[in-house]
Amino acid sequence: MSSLPTNVQELNVEQITALMAGPNASNNSAEKTNELLPLLRVNHQEEDEDGNELKKGLFFLAGSSIDKVYAKEVNFRALGDFMQYLHYDQDQQAVINRTIIHRMGDEPIDETGSLRCGRPVGKEFHALPDTEKKKYTGITCFRYLYGMVSYTGHTATGEGSEVIETPCLFRTKGASFLNFSEEVIKPCAAQDIAFLNVSSVLFNERKRNGGVTYFTSHFKPDFKKKIELSPSDVEVMKHILTLIKGVNDEVRRKYDDKLRSHASNDQASKLFDDVVAGD
C-alpha cells in the first residue's frame, strides 16, 4: 500500500526525486481527484461555449482562472509518474469511487474497501471476453504525468498567446497509456538519464477505428539538452506530493472505514447465526 511521508517539506532532493519518479528515474536510481493542478487536456469539441470553432486534437491548459490557449504541440517535462483508477457513473455524471494515486507495484486501495475500484488487474482484465469487460464499464486506469508545460498557441478566437512554463497534470489512458514508458522512460534508462531532466515535444496522432476518430499522445524527447532540477522545480514537486498525500489520506480513511464496517457486519451476522443455532 503506497504511503507518503508525513512532512513532505522535510525531504531532500534525492528523496523527492525517488517519490516522484519511482524506480524509473534512471538506471541507477536509489530510490476530488484532479483538482490538484491545471489539467493539460486534448480538445475533443468542435466549438467552445461561445460558438467559436475549435480543431479537435489540440492541447490546452484547463483550470480555474486560466484562459484557454490551444496548440498542436507543447513542450512537456515530466516531474512525476503515477496512476489512479476512477469509477465514473454515466447516469450520475460523477466519479463514484477512486483509488489512491499510486505507482506501479503499489496496492491500489479504493474508497469502497476493495482494490482498483473492483476491476481485475491489467492482464486479467484485458484477457476477459468483451461481455465480461462490460461489467467494468466506467472504471478506467489513468496514468498521471505531473510536470511543467510551455507552448505558443492561440485562443479560440485566433489571437496568438504564449503559455510560460506552468505546473500541470497530464492524464493518459487506453492507447496512450504506455507511450510515456516506450518513448521517454526506456530511452532515458538506456542513456542513464532521469526523465525529470528531459523535456519532450508532446503531440497527438489522429486515428480511426471504424467510424470512431480518436487521438493518441506521443512524446519526442530532446536528449541534447539535459535540464537540471532547479529550486523552483523542487518546490513544485513538494507541492505535488503534498496534494497527492491529501487525496490518498482521504481515500485511505474511507477504505479503513469500509473495512471496519464490513468486519462489524460480519461479526453481527455470526452472532445472529450463533443465536439461531442455539435455539
Structural write-up:
- 28% of the residues lie in helices and 29% in strands.
- The protein is built from 5 helices and 9 strands; from the N terminus they run αβββββααββαββα.
- Strands 1, 2, 3, 4, 5, 6, 7, 8 and 9 form a 9-stranded mixed sheet that branches.
- Strand 4 and strand 5 (94-98) form a beta hairpin.
- The chain is globular, with a radius of gyration of 21 Å.
- Residues 25-35 and 271-276 have low confidence and may be disordered.
Would you identify the regions where 5 or more consecutive residues have pLDDT less than 50?
25-35, 271-276
Mean pLDDT: 87
Biggest sheet, open or closed, and with what strands and sense?
9 strands, mixed
Helix content: 25-40%
Span of the ends, CA to CA: 44 Å
Task: Please outline the helices and strands.
Layout: H1 13-21, E1 39-42, E2 59-62, E3 70-71, E4 73-89, E5 94-98, H2 122-127, H3 130-133, E6 139-154, E7 160-172, H4 179-190, E8 200-209, E9 212-221, H5 231-278
Helix pairs in contact: 1-5
Q: Which short descriptors sum up this protein?
A:
279 residues; alpha+beta; 29% strand; globular
What's the gist of this structure?
The chain contains five helices and nine strands.
